[in-house]
Amino acid sequence: MWEPPKPFTILNRGLIEAAAALLEEGGPAAVTLREVGRRVGVSHNAPYKHFADKEELLAAVAAAELRRGRDSVLRLRRGHAAVEAVRLMLHAYAREAIRHPEMFRLTYGPWRNGSAELASAADDARASLVQSVTAAQADGELPAGDPERLTALLLALAHGASDLALSGHLARKGKGHADPADLIDDLLAQLTAH
Amino acid sequence: MWEPPKPFTILNRGLIEAAAALLEEGGPAAVTLREVGRRVGVSHNAPYKHFADKEELLAAVAAAELRRGRDSVLRLRRGHAAVEAVRLMLHAYAREAIRHPEMFRLTYGPWRNGSAELASAADDARASLVQSVTAAQADGELPAGDPERLTALLLALAHGASDLALSGHLARKGKGHADPADLIDDLLAQLTAH
DNA sequence: ACCTGAACACCGTTCAAGT
DNA sequence: ACCTGAACACCGTTCAAGT
Lengths: 194, 194
Fold this sequence. Notes:
The structure is a homodimer. By secondary structure, chain A is an all-alpha fold. Chain A has eight helices and no strands. The longest helix of chain A is centred in the middle third of the chain and has 24 residues, at 54-77. The structure holds a DNA duplex.
Protein backbone atom coordinates (compact mmCIF):
# COMPACT_ATOMS: atom_id res chain seq x y z
CA MET A 1 0.00 0.00 0.00
CA TRP A 2 2.69 2.43 1.03
CA GLU A 3 4.75 4.02 -1.72
CA PRO A 4 8.00 5.85 -1.23
CA PRO A 5 7.64 9.56 -2.03
CA LYS A 6 8.96 10.47 -5.44
CA PRO A 7 11.99 12.76 -5.57
CA PHE A 8 11.12 16.39 -6.06
CA THR A 9 12.41 17.14 -9.51
CA ILE A 10 12.64 20.66 -10.82
CA LEU A 11 9.71 20.05 -13.12
CA ASN A 12 7.67 18.55 -10.32
CA ARG A 13 8.10 21.67 -8.22
CA GLY A 14 7.38 23.91 -11.20
CA LEU A 15 4.12 22.12 -11.93
CA ILE A 16 2.99 22.51 -8.32
CA GLU A 17 3.85 26.21 -8.26
CA ALA A 18 2.11 26.86 -11.57
CA ALA A 19 -0.95 25.01 -10.35
CA ALA A 20 -0.97 26.99 -7.11
CA ALA A 21 -0.74 30.28 -9.01
CA LEU A 22 -3.61 29.31 -11.30
CA LEU A 23 -5.68 28.23 -8.32
CA GLU A 24 -5.24 31.58 -6.65
CA GLU A 25 -6.09 33.44 -9.86
CA GLY A 26 -9.28 31.64 -10.76
CA GLY A 27 -10.14 28.71 -8.53
CA PRO A 28 -9.80 25.00 -9.25
CA ALA A 29 -11.57 25.29 -12.61
CA ALA A 30 -8.77 27.59 -13.80
CA VAL A 31 -6.18 24.93 -13.04
CA THR A 32 -6.20 23.21 -16.43
CA LEU A 33 -3.39 20.80 -17.23
CA ARG A 34 -3.02 22.59 -20.53
CA GLU A 35 -2.33 25.95 -18.89
CA VAL A 36 -0.11 24.41 -16.22
CA GLY A 37 1.97 22.76 -18.94
CA ARG A 38 2.09 25.95 -20.99
CA ARG A 39 3.41 28.00 -18.05
CA VAL A 40 6.10 25.46 -17.27
CA GLY A 41 7.01 25.03 -20.92
CA VAL A 42 5.94 21.46 -21.51
CA SER A 43 3.08 19.82 -23.34
CA HIS A 44 -0.36 19.58 -21.82
CA ASN A 45 0.05 15.98 -20.78
CA ALA A 46 3.61 15.97 -19.52
CA PRO A 47 2.16 16.34 -15.97
CA TYR A 48 0.82 12.81 -16.29
CA LYS A 49 4.41 11.54 -15.96
CA HIS A 50 4.58 13.13 -12.49
CA PHE A 51 1.02 12.90 -11.21
CA ALA A 52 -1.57 10.26 -11.86
CA ASP A 53 -4.22 12.84 -12.64
CA LYS A 54 -5.36 16.38 -11.95
CA GLU A 55 -6.56 15.53 -8.45
CA GLU A 56 -3.15 14.24 -7.45
CA LEU A 57 -1.54 17.45 -8.67
CA LEU A 58 -4.00 19.48 -6.59
CA ALA A 59 -3.33 17.22 -3.60
CA ALA A 60 0.37 18.06 -3.92
CA VAL A 61 -0.52 21.75 -3.92
CA ALA A 62 -2.58 21.25 -0.75
CA ALA A 63 0.17 19.23 0.95
CA ALA A 64 2.73 21.95 0.25
CA GLU A 65 0.37 24.51 1.78
CA LEU A 66 -0.17 22.36 4.88
CA ARG A 67 3.59 22.06 5.32
CA ARG A 68 3.88 25.84 5.12
CA GLY A 69 1.16 26.12 7.76
CA ARG A 70 2.97 23.71 10.06
CA ASP A 71 6.22 25.70 9.74
CA SER A 72 4.36 28.94 10.43
CA VAL A 73 2.83 27.41 13.56
CA LEU A 74 6.25 26.25 14.76
CA ARG A 75 7.64 29.76 14.34
CA LEU A 76 4.84 31.27 16.43
CA ARG A 77 5.62 28.97 19.35
CA ARG A 78 8.96 30.65 19.94
CA GLY A 79 8.92 33.95 21.77
CA HIS A 80 5.38 33.90 23.12
CA ALA A 81 3.62 32.63 26.21
CA ALA A 82 1.71 29.47 25.32
CA VAL A 83 -1.79 30.93 25.44
CA GLU A 84 -0.69 33.91 23.38
CA ALA A 85 0.90 31.56 20.84
CA VAL A 86 -2.42 29.73 20.55
CA ARG A 87 -4.21 33.01 20.00
CA LEU A 88 -1.73 34.08 17.32
CA MET A 89 -1.93 30.70 15.57
CA LEU A 90 -5.70 30.85 15.35
CA HIS A 91 -5.61 34.44 14.12
CA ALA A 92 -3.03 33.48 11.49
CA TYR A 93 -5.27 30.60 10.42
CA ALA A 94 -8.22 32.91 9.86
CA ARG A 95 -6.11 35.61 8.22
CA GLU A 96 -4.65 33.19 5.68
CA ALA A 97 -8.10 31.78 4.96
CA ILE A 98 -9.51 35.22 4.18
CA ARG A 99 -6.47 36.26 2.20
CA HIS A 100 -6.26 33.08 0.10
CA PRO A 101 -9.78 31.69 -0.13
CA GLU A 102 -9.12 29.30 -2.99
CA MET A 103 -6.11 27.74 -1.30
CA PHE A 104 -8.08 27.49 1.94
CA ARG A 105 -10.99 25.74 0.25
CA LEU A 106 -8.65 23.38 -1.57
CA THR A 107 -6.65 22.49 1.52
CA TYR A 108 -9.68 21.65 3.63
CA GLY A 109 -11.81 20.44 0.77
CA PRO A 110 -12.98 16.97 -0.12
CA TRP A 111 -10.33 14.38 -1.00
CA ARG A 112 -11.68 11.25 -2.56
CA ASN A 113 -8.37 9.40 -2.38
CA GLY A 114 -7.02 9.94 1.11
CA SER A 115 -3.44 10.81 0.22
CA ALA A 116 -1.08 9.71 3.00
CA GLU A 117 1.18 12.68 2.31
CA LEU A 118 -1.73 15.05 2.81
CA ALA A 119 -2.90 13.40 6.01
CA SER A 120 0.54 13.45 7.62
CA ALA A 121 1.14 17.10 6.73
CA ALA A 122 -2.19 17.98 8.34
CA ASP A 123 -1.39 15.88 11.40
CA ASP A 124 1.96 17.61 11.85
CA ALA A 125 0.35 21.05 11.68
CA ARG A 126 -2.29 20.11 14.21
CA ALA A 127 0.21 18.44 16.53
CA SER A 128 2.07 21.75 16.91
CA LEU A 129 -1.13 23.44 17.97
CA VAL A 130 -1.90 20.64 20.43
CA GLN A 131 1.50 21.15 22.06
CA SER A 132 0.86 24.85 22.61
CA VAL A 133 -2.61 24.15 23.97
CA THR A 134 -1.15 21.61 26.39
CA ALA A 135 1.43 24.15 27.55
CA ALA A 136 -1.27 26.78 28.04
CA GLN A 137 -3.25 24.31 30.13
CA ALA A 138 -0.15 23.68 32.27
CA ASP A 139 0.12 27.46 32.73
CA GLY A 140 -3.46 27.47 34.00
CA GLU A 141 -4.48 29.74 31.10
CA LEU A 142 -6.80 27.24 29.45
CA PRO A 143 -9.23 24.84 31.17
CA ALA A 144 -8.04 21.32 31.90
CA GLY A 145 -9.21 18.33 29.91
CA ASP A 146 -8.17 16.31 26.87
CA PRO A 147 -5.88 18.71 24.94
CA GLU A 148 -6.72 17.05 21.61
CA ARG A 149 -10.36 17.77 22.21
CA LEU A 150 -9.78 21.35 23.33
CA THR A 151 -7.62 21.90 20.25
CA ALA A 152 -10.40 20.51 18.09
CA LEU A 153 -12.79 23.01 19.68
CA LEU A 154 -10.50 25.94 18.97
CA LEU A 155 -9.64 24.83 15.46
CA ALA A 156 -13.27 24.13 14.61
CA LEU A 157 -14.23 27.65 15.63
CA ALA A 158 -11.39 29.28 13.68
CA HIS A 159 -12.19 27.14 10.65
CA GLY A 160 -15.93 27.67 10.79
CA ALA A 161 -15.68 31.40 11.30
CA SER A 162 -13.30 31.66 8.35
CA ASP A 163 -15.42 29.51 6.05
CA LEU A 164 -18.67 31.27 6.94
CA ALA A 165 -17.01 34.65 6.48
CA LEU A 166 -15.84 33.61 3.01
CA SER A 167 -19.31 32.50 1.97
CA GLY A 168 -20.94 35.56 3.55
CA HIS A 169 -22.95 33.48 6.01
CA LEU A 170 -21.28 34.64 9.22
CA ALA A 171 -23.75 37.41 10.05
CA ARG A 172 -26.35 39.61 8.50
CA LYS A 173 -24.68 42.27 6.42
CA GLY A 174 -25.42 45.34 8.48
CA LYS A 175 -25.63 43.72 11.91
CA GLY A 176 -23.06 42.51 14.38
CA HIS A 177 -20.15 42.64 11.98
CA ALA A 178 -18.05 40.22 14.00
CA ASP A 179 -15.14 38.95 11.94
CA PRO A 180 -13.34 35.63 12.56
CA ALA A 181 -10.69 37.28 14.73
CA ASP A 182 -13.38 38.70 17.03
CA LEU A 183 -15.00 35.31 17.45
CA ILE A 184 -11.66 33.65 18.22
CA ASP A 185 -11.06 36.23 20.96
CA ASP A 186 -14.60 35.75 22.26
CA LEU A 187 -14.04 32.03 22.65
CA LEU A 188 -10.66 32.45 24.31
CA ALA A 189 -12.15 34.98 26.71
CA GLN A 190 -14.84 32.49 27.67
CA LEU A 191 -12.28 29.72 28.15
CA THR A 192 -9.82 31.76 30.22
CA ALA A 193 -12.51 33.27 32.49
CA HIS A 194 -13.76 29.98 33.86
CA MET B 1 -30.99 45.60 -10.32
CA TRP B 2 -33.83 43.73 -8.62
CA GLU B 3 -35.73 41.17 -10.61
CA PRO B 4 -39.06 39.68 -9.65
CA PRO B 5 -38.81 35.96 -8.85
CA LYS B 6 -40.01 33.75 -11.67
CA PRO B 7 -43.07 31.62 -11.03
CA PHE B 8 -42.29 28.07 -9.98
CA THR B 9 -43.41 26.01 -12.92
CA ILE B 10 -43.61 22.24 -12.76
CA LEU B 11 -40.55 21.94 -14.96
CA ASN B 12 -38.63 24.40 -12.82
CA ARG B 13 -39.21 22.32 -9.71
CA GLY B 14 -38.36 19.13 -11.56
CA LEU B 15 -35.06 20.53 -12.72
CA ILE B 16 -34.13 21.56 -9.19
CA GLU B 17 -35.05 18.16 -7.77
CA ALA B 18 -33.12 16.30 -10.46
CA ALA B 19 -30.09 18.51 -9.89
CA ALA B 20 -30.29 17.92 -6.13
CA ALA B 21 -30.46 14.15 -6.63
CA LEU B 22 -27.44 14.19 -8.96
CA LEU B 23 -25.53 16.36 -6.51
CA GLU B 24 -26.12 13.89 -3.72
CA GLU B 25 -25.11 10.96 -5.91
CA GLY B 26 -21.84 12.30 -7.24
CA GLY B 27 -21.07 15.87 -6.28
CA PRO B 28 -21.34 19.03 -8.39
CA ALA B 29 -19.39 17.47 -11.27
CA ALA B 30 -22.13 14.86 -11.65
CA VAL B 31 -24.74 17.60 -12.10
CA THR B 32 -24.54 17.88 -15.89
CA LEU B 33 -27.26 19.75 -17.70
CA ARG B 34 -27.47 16.83 -20.09
CA GLU B 35 -28.29 14.36 -17.32
CA VAL B 36 -30.62 16.80 -15.58
CA GLY B 37 -32.52 17.24 -18.81
CA ARG B 38 -32.59 13.52 -19.49
CA ARG B 39 -34.10 12.75 -16.07
CA VAL B 40 -36.79 15.35 -16.49
CA GLY B 41 -37.47 14.35 -20.05
CA VAL B 42 -36.35 17.45 -21.92
CA SER B 43 -33.37 18.29 -24.06
CA HIS B 44 -30.01 19.13 -22.57
CA ASN B 45 -30.43 22.83 -23.01
CA ALA B 46 -34.05 23.30 -22.07
CA PRO B 47 -32.83 24.32 -18.58
CA TYR B 48 -31.43 27.49 -20.15
CA LYS B 49 -34.98 28.76 -20.52
CA HIS B 50 -35.38 28.63 -16.74
CA PHE B 51 -31.89 29.34 -15.45
CA ALA B 52 -29.20 31.56 -16.93
CA ASP B 53 -26.55 28.91 -16.49
CA LYS B 54 -25.52 25.90 -14.44
CA GLU B 55 -24.51 28.03 -11.49
CA GLU B 56 -27.95 29.61 -11.26
CA LEU B 57 -29.52 26.14 -11.22
CA LEU B 58 -27.21 25.09 -8.38
CA ALA B 59 -28.01 28.32 -6.55
CA ALA B 60 -31.69 27.41 -6.72
CA VAL B 61 -30.86 23.99 -5.24
CA ALA B 62 -28.97 25.68 -2.41
CA ALA B 63 -31.77 28.18 -1.77
CA ALA B 64 -34.33 25.37 -1.52
CA GLU B 65 -32.09 23.60 1.00
CA LEU B 66 -31.70 26.78 3.07
CA ARG B 67 -35.47 27.19 3.16
CA ARG B 68 -35.80 23.63 4.41
CA GLY B 69 -33.23 24.41 7.09
CA ARG B 70 -35.13 27.48 8.19
CA ASP B 71 -38.37 25.50 8.49
CA SER B 72 -36.59 22.81 10.48
CA VAL B 73 -35.22 25.43 12.85
CA LEU B 74 -38.68 26.93 13.31
CA ARG B 75 -40.11 23.50 14.20
CA LEU B 76 -37.43 22.96 16.88
CA ARG B 77 -38.34 26.19 18.63
CA ARG B 78 -41.72 24.81 19.63
CA GLY B 79 -41.83 22.48 22.61
CA HIS B 80 -38.36 23.11 24.01
CA ALA B 81 -36.77 25.49 26.45
CA ALA B 82 -34.76 28.08 24.53
CA VAL B 83 -31.30 26.82 25.40
CA GLU B 84 -32.33 23.27 24.60
CA ALA B 85 -33.75 24.44 21.27
CA VAL B 86 -30.40 26.07 20.48
CA ARG B 87 -28.62 22.84 21.32
CA LEU B 88 -30.95 20.78 19.15
CA MET B 89 -30.62 23.23 16.25
CA LEU B 90 -26.83 23.05 16.30
CA HIS B 91 -26.90 19.26 16.55
CA ALA B 92 -29.32 19.09 13.62
CA TYR B 93 -27.01 21.37 11.64
CA ALA B 94 -24.04 19.05 12.16
CA ARG B 95 -26.09 15.90 11.58
CA GLU B 96 -27.38 17.16 8.24
CA ALA B 97 -23.87 18.20 7.22
CA ILE B 98 -22.46 14.74 7.90
CA ARG B 99 -25.42 12.99 6.32
CA HIS B 100 -25.47 15.12 3.16
CA PRO B 101 -21.92 16.35 2.58
CA GLU B 102 -22.40 17.46 -1.01
CA MET B 103 -25.47 19.51 -0.21
CA PHE B 104 -23.69 21.03 2.78
CA ARG B 105 -20.67 22.02 0.71
CA LEU B 106 -22.87 23.47 -2.00
CA THR B 107 -25.04 25.45 0.39
CA TYR B 108 -22.12 27.06 2.16
CA GLY B 109 -19.82 27.11 -0.82
CA PRO B 110 -18.55 29.99 -2.91
CA TRP B 111 -21.12 32.00 -4.84
CA ARG B 112 -19.65 34.30 -7.44
CA ASN B 113 -22.94 36.05 -8.15
CA GLY B 114 -24.48 36.87 -4.80
CA SER B 115 -28.02 35.71 -5.48
CA ALA B 116 -30.52 37.77 -3.49
CA GLU B 117 -32.77 34.75 -3.11
CA LEU B 118 -29.93 32.76 -1.58
CA ALA B 119 -28.92 35.53 0.81
CA SER B 120 -32.46 36.09 2.11
CA ALA B 121 -33.03 32.37 2.65
CA ALA B 122 -29.83 32.20 4.67
CA ASP B 123 -30.76 35.32 6.63
CA ASP B 124 -34.15 33.84 7.52
CA ALA B 125 -32.57 30.63 8.78
CA ARG B 126 -30.05 32.50 10.90
CA ALA B 127 -32.69 34.88 12.26
CA SER B 128 -34.61 31.96 13.77
CA LEU B 129 -31.49 30.84 15.59
CA VAL B 130 -30.81 34.38 16.82
CA GLN B 131 -34.31 34.49 18.32
CA SER B 132 -33.74 31.30 20.29
CA VAL B 133 -30.34 32.52 21.47
CA THR B 134 -31.90 35.77 22.64
CA ALA B 135 -34.57 33.86 24.53
CA ALA B 136 -31.93 31.64 26.16
CA GLN B 137 -30.06 34.77 27.24
CA ALA B 138 -33.24 36.14 28.79
CA ASP B 139 -33.59 32.83 30.65
CA GLY B 140 -30.08 33.34 32.01
CA GLU B 141 -28.94 30.14 30.31
CA LEU B 142 -26.49 31.83 27.95
CA PRO B 143 -24.15 34.74 28.75
CA ALA B 144 -25.34 38.26 28.00
CA GLY B 145 -24.02 40.25 25.06
CA ASP B 146 -24.86 40.92 21.42
CA PRO B 147 -27.07 37.96 20.45
CA GLU B 148 -26.01 38.20 16.80
CA ARG B 149 -22.41 37.79 17.84
CA LEU B 150 -23.10 34.93 20.21
CA THR B 151 -25.10 33.22 17.47
CA ALA B 152 -22.18 33.70 15.10
CA LEU B 153 -19.91 32.02 17.66
CA LEU B 154 -22.19 29.03 18.01
CA LEU B 155 -22.85 28.70 14.30
CA ALA B 156 -19.17 29.05 13.44
CA LEU B 157 -18.29 26.21 15.79
CA ALA B 158 -21.04 23.93 14.47
CA HIS B 159 -20.07 24.74 10.91
CA GLY B 160 -16.33 24.35 11.43
CA ALA B 161 -16.65 21.09 13.35
CA SER B 162 -18.87 19.69 10.60
CA ASP B 163 -16.61 20.83 7.77
CA LEU B 164 -13.43 19.57 9.43
CA ALA B 165 -15.08 16.25 10.23
CA LEU B 166 -16.05 15.87 6.57
CA SER B 167 -12.52 16.54 5.37
CA GLY B 168 -11.02 14.34 8.09
CA HIS B 169 -9.12 17.23 9.68
CA LEU B 170 -10.98 17.37 12.98
CA ALA B 171 -8.58 15.16 14.94
CA ARG B 172 -5.93 12.55 14.49
CA LYS B 173 -7.54 9.29 13.54
CA GLY B 174 -6.91 7.28 16.67
CA LYS B 175 -6.90 10.10 19.22
CA GLY B 176 -9.56 12.17 20.86
CA HIS B 177 -12.35 11.06 18.55
CA ALA B 178 -14.52 14.04 19.34
CA ASP B 179 -17.31 14.40 16.81
CA PRO B 180 -19.11 17.66 15.99
CA ALA B 181 -21.90 16.95 18.48
CA ASP B 182 -19.36 16.55 21.30
CA LEU B 183 -17.72 19.87 20.47
CA ILE B 184 -21.07 21.64 20.36
CA ASP B 185 -21.85 20.31 23.83
CA ASP B 186 -18.39 21.30 25.06
CA LEU B 187 -18.94 24.88 23.94
CA LEU B 188 -22.41 25.09 25.43
CA ALA B 189 -21.08 23.70 28.72
CA GLN B 190 -18.40 26.40 28.79
CA LEU B 191 -20.97 29.10 28.02
CA THR B 192 -23.56 28.02 30.57
CA ALA B 193 -21.01 27.54 33.41
CA HIS B 194 -19.79 31.13 33.45
C1' DA C 1 -43.05 31.49 -25.28
C1' DC C 2 -40.66 27.29 -25.06
C1' DC C 3 -38.17 23.58 -26.97
C1' DT C 4 -34.91 20.92 -30.14
C1' DG C 5 -30.71 19.36 -32.64
C1' DA C 6 -26.44 20.74 -34.42
C1' DA C 7 -22.39 23.03 -33.58
C1' DC C 8 -18.39 25.30 -31.00
C1' DA C 9 -14.85 25.74 -27.73
C1' DC C 10 -12.78 23.57 -24.00
C1' DC C 11 -11.03 20.05 -20.92
C1' DG C 12 -9.26 15.47 -18.76
C1' DT C 13 -7.38 11.47 -20.27
C1' DT C 14 -5.39 7.88 -23.38
C1' DC C 15 -2.23 6.25 -26.70
C1' DA C 16 1.00 5.45 -30.37
C1' DA C 17 5.12 7.32 -31.57
C1' DG C 18 9.33 9.67 -30.97
C1' DT C 19 14.38 10.74 -28.32
C1' DA D 1 12.69 7.27 -18.81
C1' DC D 2 10.33 11.22 -20.36
C1' DC D 3 7.98 13.86 -23.71
C1' DT D 4 4.91 15.05 -27.83
C1' DG D 5 0.87 15.45 -30.96
C1' DA D 6 -3.31 13.43 -32.29
C1' DA D 7 -7.42 11.61 -30.85
C1' DC D 8 -11.58 10.45 -27.82
C1' DA D 9 -15.31 11.28 -24.84
C1' DC D 10 -17.56 14.71 -22.35
C1' DC D 11 -19.40 19.12 -20.97
C1' DG D 12 -21.23 24.16 -20.84
C1' DT D 13 -23.00 27.26 -23.88
C1' DT D 14 -24.78 29.32 -28.25
C1' DC D 15 -27.73 29.51 -32.13
C1' DA D 16 -30.74 28.78 -35.99
C1' DA D 17 -34.84 26.59 -36.60
C1' DG D 18 -39.11 24.58 -35.37
C1' DT D 19 -44.29 24.64 -32.81
